[in-house]
Amino acid sequence: MKKIFSYPKSLKPAETHYCAGCGHGIIHRIIAEVIDEMGLRENTVAVAPVGCAVVAYDYFNFDMTESAHGRAPAVATGIRRTLPDRLVFTYQGDGDLAAIGTAEIIHAANRGEKISVIFVNNAVYGMTNGQMAPTTLLSQKTETTPLGRDAERDGYPLKITEMLASLPGVKFLARKSTHSPQEIAKAKQAIRDAFKIQRAGLGFSMVEILSACPTCWGLSPKESLDWIKNRMVPYYPLGRIKEPESELAET
Amino acid sequence: MTRPTTIERKLTTGNEAIAEGAIQAGCRFYAGYPITPQNELCEYMARHMPEVGGTFIQSESEIAAINMVFGAAVAGARAMTSSSSPGISLKQEGISYIAACELPAVISNMMRGGPGLGNVWPAQSDYFQATKGGGHGDYHLIVLAPATVQEAFDMTKEAFDLADRYRNPVMILGDGILGQMMESFEMKPAKTRQPSRKKDYILDGCKGRKPRVIQSLFLEEGMLERLNDKLQAKYRRIERELVRYEELNTNDADLILVAYGSSSRIARAVMRDARVKGLKIGFFRPMTLWPFPTEAMRKLAKPKRAFLVIEMSAGQMVEDVRLSIEGRAPVYFYGRSGGGIPSEEAVFAEVRKALKKARSKVK
């Protein structure tokens, strides 16, 4: 019998601790598939964040470290400058990247560091039980916005990918989603393109991926996917926000 | 500065001597953020790191700099950052992670007055945050305390070897005087130094081996305690192997002056002057602040003898002196803080006071 589906080599055959319906497992898998397909597993060093994905190194099957909260782009800078021929990427959530780590992400991007960032946006602090994230939508209820996020009191949901688009050192930006198989396939393509940009030495690349957190959203996995599509996507439009002209047209 | 092939004398600041010492020790990664009084170090690295094919990054913050050093150490580089007191406070988060992950790194700290923004004048206000951990958790840095530009250069070269040998962060703890003062020093021929052992823990891609993980998160019951036990065993080993100090005229001394770094140069001058005047004064200078020369101090605590600790702080190292002596002898303190520097005259007056107090206690 022919084996038609298995773990990518870049994933350890481990059961994850992620909740039912969580997007991390999907995103881990598509990253691992891309690294396998590009033949880079033995040439990769990645940085895990503080957040639910902190133990990503229990699941990815290549060299990994973890950084202090928000500092992953600085850690990746030190790694990539020391080992310029390796694939170096960070895996960060919205609290890590868009709140406590804003200085590190903006300046790594502005230096045009040849790293890639996988930015998982689930509009909530998942690991600490669901407090407001910088990306929490207006009127969205969280543990620290019990009546819903109020712009007057809590400010507005942060579109950090659009913010980074103005920086000349940034060569590739995309926002993708995990709410359907089609979108997941597009997210995988964007990850591949981000890694290609890095391998070509062009500069900084980042893929923001909208992802479900049914546990903290208080929704079922199916409802969560609908919530991404109907609530998140209108505010966080999908697409390729910045890319070099030619060669990387979406397939 | 050209790297010499024979022994040469150079005239430079402590900051530049530390930077050159680092490059000669094989440091190939530097990240830092400007802060007075240590900018000469950062600027020297910007000029000279490219000559040896190394990386210089002016980071967006002290926090980013220490985390870049973390990354460079993860990838196997000899890496360094530098700052001064308020900047070191910011780096403490990263230093705790470096210590927890047992990574080698060198941090230069040319101290200035605090607390708060303080001022840019020389001080020894960071003894606590250098020697007691500084960040969260049970850990220690190795802390070297140069008193001259020569020592700043030599100790920096050694710091990289120590960091690799013990896989532990090492701090060069000086102050604004040492950092900015020019002194002549002897530069031995530069040789490319290699880490004393093969780095079998670094992350450079898992070619031909199993993937490695460098982490400081241990959630499973008992695992973090095991890490701490391992770290503590290493710290005990460092305490056995690394303690260094200088001791002068202590045999017959009625009073021993204890000081480190810049204030030790003042204390040494006072000791010499006092000997000329016929006073039996000794001198003790810790050169490693952690590990502290506890045993050596304890042995000096004899009947009819007192100690006078001189610091450019409100009294920080004096606590370790008292812990070492454990009440066996009186320990007095004289310090200036906030950029104030003890004058020889003021220290001499304190010596006379201390002798008087000690004598009245003996009676």
SSE topology sketch:
The complex is a heterodimer of chains A (251) and B (363).
Chain A: H1 24-38, E1 44-48, E2 63-66, H2 72-82, E3 87-93, H3 94-100, H4 102-110, E4 116-121, H5 151-154, H6 160-164, E5 170-177, H7 181-199, E6 204-210, H8 214-217, H9 221-235, E7 239-242
Parallel strand pairs in A: 1-2, 1-3, 3-4, 4-6, 5-6
Antiparallel strand pairs in A: 5-7
Helix pairs in contact in A: 1-7, 3-4
Chain B: E1 8-13, H1 14-24, E2 29-32, H2 39-48, E3 55-58, H3 62-74, E4 79-83, H4 85-100, E5 105-111, H5 127-131, E6 142-144, H6 149-166, E7 169-175, H7 176-180, E8 182-187, E9 213-214, H8 223-242, E10 245-248, E11 255-258, H9 261-276, E12 281-286, E13 288-290, H10 294-300, E14 306-311, H11 317-325, E15 331-335, H12 344-362
Helix pairs in contact in B: 1-2, 1-6, 3-4, 9-12, 10-11
Task: Please give a handful of descriptors for the protein shown.
heterodimer; A: 251 residues; alpha/beta; Rossmann fold; 9 helices; B: alpha/beta; 2 domains; seven-stranded mixed sheet; five-stranded mixed sheet; 15 strands; globular
Question: How would you sum up this structure, described in words?
Answer:
The complex is a heterodimer of chains A (251) and B (363). Chain A is 35% helix and 16% strand. Chain A is an alpha/beta fold and 251 residues long. Chain A has one domain (24-242): 3-Layer(aba) Sandwich (Rossmann fold), CATH 3.40.50.970. In chain A, helix 1 (24-38) packs across helix 7. Chain B is of the alpha/beta class and 363 residues long. Chain B has 2 domains: 8-242, 3-Layer(aba) Sandwich (Rossmann fold), CATH 3.40.50.970; 245-362, Rossmann fold, CATH 3.40.50.920. In chain B, 41% of the residues lie in helices and 20% in strands. Chain B has helices at 14-24, 39-48, 62-74, 85-100, 127-131, 149-166, 176-180, 223-242, 261-276, 294-300, 317-325, 344-362, and strands spanning 8-13, 29-32, 55-58, 79-83, 105-111, 142-144, 169-175, 182-187, 213-214, 245-248, 255-258, 281-286, 288-290, 306-311, 331-335. In chain B, the strands form 3 sheets. A 7-stranded mixed beta sheet of chain B has the order 3-2-4-5-7-6-13, sandwiched between helices. A 5-stranded mixed beta sheet of chain B has the order 10-12-11-14-15, sandwiched between helices. Chain B has a two-stranded antiparallel ribbon with strand order 1-8. In chain B, strand 11 (255-258), helix 9 (261-276) and strand 12 form a beta-alpha-beta unit. Strand 2 of chain A pairs parallel with strand 9 of chain B.
